[in-house]
Specification:
Chain lengths: ~280, ~325
């Protein structure tokens, strides 16, 4: 049960990260491998405000979201300089990973920050025979709250319709008089803010470290490959599946846990290359 | 006279460069010799990655893993089984890397476009994670395979840093010849065709998937050879030589040198190896920052490469015409 709670919390963090990556890839056609670096920035900003300066934790996470939204704006400007060229996008995102990880080490020191210790999120609630840590519960609540919000926006509102239309046929959408540039900026800013929130709440379990850009990126891209892009529900299912699978296999055979995730990815690719709910590209 | 000069200029330049490269160790300290060896090895790795990257247009971010398969194969055989013969070891590395890249290709080619990149990246990291976790791939209580030494050729050779450099140079020249042969062969044209226009190639009766797989296997196998040489030279092979960051550096080498050009990737490999070495010499802690800036600048400037080349060419022509006048 404890294992499942861990899995749900990890799944929630993975959803927050993976949804940003999937939106960028699907709606904007940008391969932003530096998305994990935004997560790291969110974790460090939350640590600075929440732990170092002692602000209330939700406020600190809010600051992380704002800081990462600004970061997203900067990223958008940079990626705009290299449109539709995977080569340059790969190099640019690798460069951003190197720079941000090193700057983070410079500012916050080479030693990783331990999981954030927030007094009112410590302890656990008793649910029948099992005790679920409040911190993990909080992560799951935030994650799935945002998931429902994103799903509603993308599937039920006009804004979502515009994003989906841009994904399917950018030229036609532009011809209808819709400013797709604005959509691109919005996706970058929103995706980065969500990644910042993920870094903040994820820090309750994972802390903050300059290794995170790569670690988180890999988990996020497995989520994207498994879930496919273009639908929030696919990302949710994939994130949950991977979160649960990861914590269950860590529990059962700790040595080979990582390989299980890749095996899942390979299986999905072989059976259904577009992912669980992917649109045909 | 002028015409003759034009005909011999390129071969002559190549001969001079190779001869110069061969004599280089006499000018260098032992440490510089091993740096030069490493530069050649990464030049080879980048040139072989460019078979997939530049020729087939398949942006593989998992090639460091194939580099690692070569390195781990020779490392394990040497340290665990005591095999010393270069020929046996390199054959094993070639077979291992070919098999691994075939598996990589079969999986990754299920995805297309940007997803192909994601999948190769994940597969590469899978190999790195396996190397990290599996105790078979660690020797003498370390996190990597250590205790690899220079192999025996069976020719009564006596290894020093200088002679091993010359040996690696010979292999590098051979590898560049092989790569040239592949690129200029009908197979090479077909591979470039699948990059340029997939649909047309399919309509012409080419099996696009098969040519792509072929490009990936050729590229991966040659990368494995470079990895084996790296393991000999470094004396160890570690998960960090295999992971995503290493693959990113390989991509940087290819693009800095100019992907799809004749010797560009090879030269890019040498440049990036030297840059990273001197960056960490200059400031160990801030070196990643410098490397990151190199990445970003390359990304932003790369689009203007064509224009830059034109400007340089026109300047050269003006010089020539000035002299003529």
């Amino acid at each position: 049960m404890q294992v499942i709670a861990n899995g749900l919390a990890l799944g929630a963090v993975l959803f927050l990260i993976g949804s940003g990556l999937a939106l960028l890839l699907g709606a904007v056609g940008v391969l932003n491998l530096a998305h994990g670096a935004v997560y790291m920035a969110g974790a460090y900003v939350t640590w600075t405000f929440g732990m170092l300066m002692g602000w209330p934790f939700p406020l600190a996470v809010g600051m992380a979201a704002v800081a990462c939204a600004v970061l997203g704006l900067v990223f958008e400007r940079l990626f705009r300089l290299v449109p539709r060229s995977p080569n340059e996008q790969i190099l640019l995102s690798f460069g951003l990973i190197y720079i941000m990880a090193n700057v983070a080490q410079w500012i916050w020191g080479p030693v990783a920050k331990p999981p954030f210790d927030v007094s009112w999120l410590a302890g656990s609630v008793q649910l029948g025979v099992v005790a679920i840590p409040v911190g993990r519960l909080a992560i799951a609540v935030v994650g799935f709250g945002i998931a429902v919000l994103l799903w509603y926006v993308q599937d039920k509102t006009r804004i979502g319709a515009i994003v989906r239309a841009g994904m399917d046929d950018a030229t036609m959408t532009r011809a209808l008089g819709i400013n797709l540039n604005l959509v691109v900026v919005a996706v970058f800013v929103l995706g980065s803010a969500v990644a910042g929130i993920a870094g903040g709440v994820g820090g309750l379990v994972l802390g903050a470290s300059s290794d995170q850009p790569m670690q988180i990126l890999l988990l996020a891209l497995i989520v994207v490959v498994v879930g496919g892009v273009g639908s929030v529900s696919g990302t949710i299912v994939a994130a949950l599946l991977i979160g649960l699978l990861d914590s269950v296999s860590r529990f059962l055979f700790p040595d080979m846990a990582v390989v299980v995730l890749y095996a899942l990815m390979v299986a999905v690719l072989v059976i259904r290359p577009t992912g669980i709910s992917g649109r045909a590209s | 006279m002028n015409k003759d000069w034009g005909r011999v200029r390129r071969p002559l330049t190549i001969v001079i460069v190779i001869a110069g490269g061969f004599l280089l160790p006499f000018l260098l300290t032992t440490q510089q010799q091993s740096l030069a060896t490493r530069a050649l090895i990464f030049g080879m790795a980048a040139a072989s990655l460019d078979l997939a990257y530049g020729q087939a247009g398949l942006y593989s971010l998992g090639n460091a893993a194939l580099f690692g398969v070569g390195g781990y194969t020779v490392g394990i055989l040497m340290v665990r089984n005591g095999i010393e013969s270069f020929w046996i070891l390199i054959a094993a590395a070639i077979v291992g890397a070919a098999l691994a890249s075939a598996i990589f290709g079969l999986i990754a080619l299920r995805a297309r476009g940007l997803y192909f990149i994601l999948v190769t990246l994940a597969l590469g990291q899978m190999v790195a994670n396996t190397a990290q976790q599996w105790s078979f791939l660690k020797t003498s209580y370390s996190e990597s395979v250590t205790g690899i030494y220079l192999p025996a050729l069976g020719l009564g050779e006596k290894w020093t840093n200088g002679t091993f450099y010359q040996f690696v140079l010979v292999i590098a020249v051979l590898m560049m010849v092989v790569i040239r042969r592949i690129v200029t062969s009908p197979l090479g044209s077909a591979i470039r065709g699948t990059r340029e226009n997939e649909v047309r190639m399919a309509v012409l009766g080419y099996n696009v998937w098969r040519y792509r797989l072929m490009a990936l296997v050729l590229s991966g196998t040659l990368t494995g050879v470079a990895g084996a040489l790296f393991a000999f030279q470094a004396g160890l092979i570690a998960p960090t030589n295999v992971g995503v960051a290493a693959s990113g550096l390989l991509a940087l080498m290819v693009i800095i040198g100019g992907s799809g050009t004749r010797y560009g990737a090879f030269i890019g490999g040498i440049i990036v190896t030297l840059l990273t070495y001197y960056a960490s010499q200059w400031n160990e802690q801030r070196a990643p920052l410098i490397i990151g800036v190199i990445f970003v600048v390359t990304a932003l400037v790369n689009r203007y490469r064509g224009r830059l080349v034109e400007v340089v060419r026109s300047m050269r022509h003006r010089e020539v015409s000035d002299v003529a006048a």
